[in-house]
Amino acid sequence: MIIASMMHVWIILGIVVLLIFIVIGIYNSLVQKRIRCREAWSQIDVQLKRRYDLIPNLVETVKGYAAHEKETLERVIQARNAAIAVGPDDVKGQAKAENFLTGALKQIFALSESYPNLKANENFMQLQEELTSTENKIAFARQHYNDTAAVYNTAREKFPNNTIAGAFNFQERDYFEIEEPAEREAPQVKF
User: Domain limits at 149?
Assistant: First the structure.
């Protein structure tokens, strides 16, 4: 009788220990996926910073050739400043600001069509090339972030992970989405 009750205690204790290890494993897996989302977001941030750094040089180059296009140039600077001002964890706000900035950049590139000397300017051509390269890197970083967020969100929603995620307040990650279909395209660079 004592042996049987001791055996029940060991079985129950073994089940409790097993459940604790399962909870710890799920928790650690969710933490790892959340950290990967943060890392992927920081890669977007790095590329956006590069983009923001290129824009003033582009505006200055255009100013010399298209001084009377002040409104377009100011719109680009305002869009850049608005994008920089978005909070670091505001994925939707960042996407909206970036969409506005992309539209403003398209206007600056459209200006080059009206100014043949600007189009031929070596500085302008180099800035266009760098900006196009940066846009491609941003697109890749966005895709990587969205893929990482999808893996995290899926893991967060699966059972029994969803109970652990709810208990430890693992929040869903927003996707970096573009709202307007026309804004899904990178700025066109034509010579």
Answer: 54-191
Which three-class secondary structure string do you get for the chain? CHHHHHHHHHHHHHHHHHHHHHHHHHHHHHHHHHHHHHHHHHHHHHHHHHHHHHHHHHHHHHHHHCCCCHHHHHHHHHHHHHHHHCCCCCHHHHHHHHHHHHHHHHHHHHHHHHCHHHHHCHHHHHHHHHHHHHHHHHHHHHHHHHHHHHHHHHHHHCCCHHHHHHHCCCCCCCCCCCCCHHHHCCCCCCC
Distance, CA of 19 to CA of 163 (rounded, Å):
13
Q: Report pLDDT digits (tens) over 70-117.
A: 788 888 889 999 999 988 788 888 888 988 888 888 888 887 777 777
Query: How much is the pTM?
Result: 0.75
* 164 located within any domain: yes
Task: Indicate which CATH number applies to the domain containing 188.
Answer: 1.20.1440.20
Structural domain includes residue 65: yes
Indicate the number of domains in the chain. 1
